[in-house]
Amino acid sequence: MAQEAAEWPPEETLSLWKREQAQLKARVVDRDTEAWQRDPAFSGLRRVGGVDVSFVKGDSVRACASLVVLSYPELEFCLQVAKQNRSFLPSACQPFRCWKQLHAP
Q: Which stretches are annotated as coiled coil (predicted)?
């Protein structure tokens, strides 16, 4: 087990993560693009969400990713998606990327 931990993550995986991080960084929007973002009361904002990715304790491969969406401003539950995956972190997030593309407003 200690041997596995010392080798994780492999250099190839680190390189993949760095490339993906650079791609995501290039897509960051650092300005307000929606009218509700400029309104102190957030008028027009209808939903908020949160994402978490956690690894199983003592296991650097098995992960659980969760997405929760709430209505705004009521903060009532709208949607929860959870996915367990036996993969490295960037791949564990893939289901949410697909879900976002399929369910974009």
A: none
